[in-house]
Amino acid sequence: MSTPPHSDLPPGSAIIGQSGGPTAVINQSLVGVIEGLRDGLHKSGTVKQVLGMRHGVRGLTKETGDGIIDLTDLPQDRLDRLAKTPSACLGSTRDKPDAAYCQRILEACKKHDIRYFFYIGGNDSSDTCRIVSEMAASTKFDLRCFHVPKTIDNDLVANDHCPGYPSAARFVAMAFMADALDNFSLPGIKINVVMGRHAGFLTAAAALARRESASTDGPHLIYLPEVPFDMGRFAGEVESVYSKLGRCHIAVSEGITNSAGQEIGATLIQSGQRDAHGNVQLSGSGALGDSLAEFLKKKLMPAGGKAPRVRADTFGYIQRCWPYSSAVDATEARQVGRHAAGLAMKGERAASVTIERVSGRDHAYAARFNHVPLATVAGKTRKLPAEFMSGTSNVSQAFLDYCQPLVGELPHVERL
Amino acid sequence: MSTPPHSDLPPGSAIIGQSGGPTAVINQSLVGVIEGLRDGLHKSGTVKQVLGMRHGVRGLTKETGDGIIDLTDLPQDRLDRLAKTPSACLGSTRDKPDAAYCQRILEACKKHDIRYFFYIGGNDSSDTCRIVSEMAASTKFDLRCFHVPKTIDNDLVANDHCPGYPSAARFVAMAFMADALDNFSLPGIKINVVMGRHAGFLTAAAALARRESASTDGPHLIYLPEVPFDMGRFAGEVESVYSKLGRCHIAVSEGITNSAGQEIGATLIQSGQRDAHGNVQLSGSGALGDSLAEFLKKKLMPAGGKAPRVRADTFGYIQRCWPYSSAVDATEARQVGRHAAGLAMKGERAASVTIERVSGRDHAYAARFNHVPLATVAGKTRKLPAEFMSGTSNVSQAFLDYCQPLVGELPHVERL
Predict the structure, then answer these.
(1) CA distances (Å), origin A276, targets A19, A75, A123, A127
(2) Catalytic: A153?
(3) Catalytic residue among B95, B153, B155, B329
(4) Assigned domain for B181 exists
(5) For position B318, which CATH number holds?
(6) A339-367 pLDDT, tens per residue?
(7) Quick one: which of B49, B41, B53 has its CA closest to B1?
(8) Which of A54, A182, A250, A410 best tests the B interface by mutation, with the highest count of B CBs <10 A?
């Protein structure tokens, strides 16, 4: 922040948008960008005003102009409260702009004298940044474009992890911890469906709920989108745990696919609404969990006997915006925003901010912020790496070591 | 605790069981009973040992005897950690004993020299207490039977509220607060299904999530089991909010029924598993929410247009055992346990402990503990009173005034 602004900066307004699924800490990043622009705003005068897009690029491109709000003079106490408020306070959007849409974005930037464009979002948002940046360059309009990472799916390449993921992972770990105790108390087979369409990072976080080993503690089985899901093997693995313990606690990613690459969940949704990205709706429905539960009830029914007690819960949207965030996540999400603004004020023209993990003292967790070209991140999906998986239905110790410092301490539970 | 034990107390063992759906604070009550028996155990010697039932009366009546564990010598630090652990650490049961089963309970008490029987649970558990107590009396076996209240449904008569409810209500209020912000961020119609089969107290708690008025803040509509649910009226009310705000945030009790008294959810579950109480499974399934969402998508589809974005989440079991309890709830759940043990040590023969609300200084919230005959509570269901409801789809200010002190402060959220 104390570096003097670069001398070649174009004077003009900065605008910030939030895109895609909200997170518990996406407003931290918004506030971070605002804070990072202060020197440019108040000292050098390079930044004329700080604007916000209402519902992302949808607001920016609104003809009426009421999709843009002025964030320049927000007092610090309000910023601090905004930062702690979950979900996107500017409003978000699922719009995935094509070339014509990006052209309208560029026109809106010209019209409103915007020279600094910050977009907080996932890989689609970094792609929007990239297209707009390239279009601006080709028309010789000096627009600086920065992508600020955000996704509970944790699926951005070039990042150790993404802001939003640690808080969602904390929620998932806590929910599994609580639900495993419930499952011990009233035994049966319990399936919990976790968000994360293409990458299993969030579902994998369920493993942090185990207090002892996976052989006794739930979740006993973890099904990730990276491992082809086979219904027969699933039934066999569940039966094996259930016959030993009298209960079985299962984490299932909403994005599990069969060996043909078809999403198990998508084939089960009745109306199959698709979003602007062509994705079939997986969240906001209990269909996958319910269908797996019905399958197990029938499959594990003993001859002439009673079906086991099988229940399914789908954690749903509260995973991504639960008000109590991970402390590491809250801090880092603020910092990536500041870092993006800092890059802009130092003269960078376009970048995607990244988080790198570094070894702290005594191997304690520490992170630093860096950046890569937009094209490095744009539109790509990072999967759970092989070393984080174990067998067909578990995660490795390496994953636990990776995830635990992000999530922070979990409540201590005691047993009889 | 300091009252000397009653002189006519039969010497023998005490046993404690947990029954029905777990809660975040049911272990507080267990620890409260253990603490309340200490004088009887260590000073007067009336209480020979303190035992626990593994999975309630199912453990007590196990022929092998391994369904009973010794809790006599648990150190205080372990008790304190157990108290803070959600879900029933002894294990719970859904068994609803009939006369023959109660006879076996009584035989087990005689066999294990049990003279003090504590059962932590809802109205079915109080009924088990009542039957066992009456059977013991009729056979001249001096067995003292105490029901310690517990239910997230808050549906016990003679109580201002029940331990377990404030923590579950806190979870529901927080979840609605977070999800309303999510719904503002990515607008659409969102249904959240909340536990509570017969009484709407838990669903009603969603209203605490509103920061301003119900006309802008979610949840905009609240559907309780006490108000007959009409699909046509539902669609009309949703459309009215949605056409005004472009979004609609809805709380639905899992127990909503039509005017003929049929549970809407029960008619939608595929396999219709029933528990020992003859209840169709409503929890652990997303069927009700999904069906209502499908209904709205079709009903609100404009001619030739695109169906609105409709999503449904079903909060599921984490409502009842989320690790962060309400502070009031944690304290009171411990106290009802101690109070039950205190009644036993003062010579009461049978009772159900109750919570009464009293006006504290400056009208601040305060509660006191009392007791009523088991038959007063046994098997009865308290509904949300009329003065807590408003119209067909909202709660009253009187309900908010009732519920807020139980739930405690919620996180402050800020808006642009």
Answers:
(1) 13, 36, 14, 15
(2) yes
(3) B153
(4) yes
(5) 3.40.50.460
(6) 999 999 999 999 999 999 997 677 789 99
(7) B41
(8) A182
**Could you tell me if A92 and A227 lie in one domain?**
no
B108-111 — which CB contacts under 8 Å span 24+ positions?
B108/B60, B108/B61, B109/B15, B109/B60, B109/B136, B109/B141, B109/B143, B110/B141
Whether residues A186 and B22 touch (CB distance < 8 A) is answered with: yes
Give the residue-averaged pLDDT of B13-25. 97
Confidence of residue B1 (pLDDT cuts 50, 70, 90): very low
Regarding whether A329 and A317 lie in a shared domain, the answer is no
Residues A281-295 have pLDDT tens digits of 556 678 899 889 988
Both B252 and B395 in a single domain? Answer: yes
Does position A213 have pLDDT exceeding 50, yes or no?
Answer: yes
pLDDT-based confidence at residue A29 (cuts at 50, 70, 90): very high
Please tell me whether the peptide bond between A405 and the residue prior to it is cis, using omega within 30 degrees of 0.
no
Structure-token pair, residue A81: 């409260």
Out of B82, B286, B321, whose CB is closest to A290? B286
Q: Are strands A350-359 and A389-390 parallel, antiparallel or unpaired?
A: unpaired
Q: How far apart are CA B318 and CA B330, in angstroms?
A: 17
Locus of tokens 């108290």: B83
Domain count, chain A: 2
Helix A99-111 vs helix A123-138: crossing angle, to nearest 10: 70
pLDDT > 90 fraction of chain B, expressed in percent and rounded: 82
CA gap B246, B187 in Å, rounded: 7
Q: Is residue B2 part of a domain?
A: no
Cβ neighbours for B355, distance < 8 A, ≥ 6 positions apart: B149, B159, B160, B161, B162, B163, B332, B336, B367, B368, B369, B370
Instruction: Record the tokens describing residue B93, joined without a space.
Output: 């049961």
| Domain span including residue B139 | 12-163+325-377
Average pLDDT, chain B: 92
- B270 to chain A, any CB pair closer than 8 A? The answer is yes
Question: Based on the domain organization, do B187 and B317 belong to the same domain?
Answer: yes
Please check whether residues B330 and B305 belong to one and the same domain.
no
Query: Is the predicted pLDDT of residue B4 greater than 90, yes or no?
Result: no
Q: Is residue A3, in this structure, part of any structural domain at all?
A: no
Residue A46 tokens read as 């390079």
**pLDDT at res. A70:** 97
Q: Are residues B318 and B329 in the same domain?
A: no
Lowest mean pLDDT among A2-11, A64-73, B198-207: A2-11
Same domain, A390 and A262: yes
Residue A280 and residue A273 in contact, taking contact as beta carbons nearer than 8 Å: yes
Which of B92, B293, B321 is opposite residue A178, by nearest beta carbon? Answer: B321
Residues of A (281-300) whose Cβ lies below 8 Å from B: 281, 283-287, 289-290, 293-294, 297
Q: What is the CATH number of the domain that holds B95?
A: 3.40.50.450
B97 within domain boundaries: yes
Q: Compute the count of residue pairs across chains A and B with CB atoms less than 8 Å apart.
A: 218
Would you say the C-alpha torsion A205, A211, A214, A219 has a positive or negative sign?
negative
Which amino acid would we find at residue A158?
A
Question: How many angstroms separate the CA atoms of B17 and B30, rounded?
Answer: 8
A185 touches chain B (CB under 8 A): yes
What phi, psi does B270 have (nearest 5°)? Answer: -60, -60
pTM: 0.95
Examine the domain organization and report whether A184 and A157 are in the same domain: no
Cα–Cα distance for residue pair A90/A101, rounded to 1 Å = 20
